[in-house]
């Protein structure tokens, strides 16, 4: 795969705003040539209101499409298209023949189960172990059901209409 790039941009090194308003002036080129037939490139130059350029791309049918364009003033892009090379006959891709691969070699080899070593004899006890605590039985007596106690609410006072006199 090869890639080539070149660019030229003409810019005065100044902060003067009157010079910044100068017309654009540049030129660039790039090309990409890939091993998978992805070949394309672009070239453009501009001087003020005039722009000229060309780009090319390799098509799947074997031809190369070349588009040249120009912009002069307010004309918009004016393009010309041409093709180079001949159309190659289409050949559909053929599937690769199927060949089953051999099974992978067995990696796991089970080991024979060795007998575990005998458990060591328990050490002699030099003290008398504490017996587990003996719990006395606990008897639960359910509570009697609650007895409702009637509550008497005092009668409410009834109030009549309220008269408001702002003068007392």
TrEMBL record:
GO terms for cellular component: extracellular matrix; extracellular space. Keywords: Cuticle. GO terms for molecular function: structural constituent of cuticle. Residues 89-126, 138-168 are annotated as: Disordered. Residues 90-126, 142-153 have a biased composition (Pro residues). It holds the Pfam family Chitin_bind_4. This is Putative LOC100870303 [Apis florea]. It comes from Lepeophtheirus salmonis (Salmon louse).
């Amino acid at each position: 795969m090869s890639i080539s790039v070149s660019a030229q941009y003409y810019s005065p090194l100044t902060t003067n705003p009157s010079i910044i308003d100068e017309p654009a002036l540049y030129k660039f080129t790039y090309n990409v040539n890939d091993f998978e037939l992805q070949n394309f490139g672009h070239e453009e130059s501009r001087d003020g209101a005039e722009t000229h350029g060309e780009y090319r791309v390799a098509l799947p049918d074997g031809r190369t499409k070349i588009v040249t364009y120009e912009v002069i003033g307010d004309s918009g892009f004016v393009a010309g298209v041409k093709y180079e090379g001949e159309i190659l006959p289409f050949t559909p891709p053929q599937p690769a023949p199927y060949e089953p691969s051999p099974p992978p070699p067995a990696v796991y080899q089970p080991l024979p189960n060795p007998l575990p070593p005998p458990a060591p004899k328990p050490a002699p006890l030099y003290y008398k172990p504490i017996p587990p605590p003996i719990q006395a039985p606990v008897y639960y007596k359910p509570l009697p059901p609650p007895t409702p106690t009637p509550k008497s609410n005092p009668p409410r006072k009834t109030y009549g209409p309220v008269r408001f006199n702002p003068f007392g």
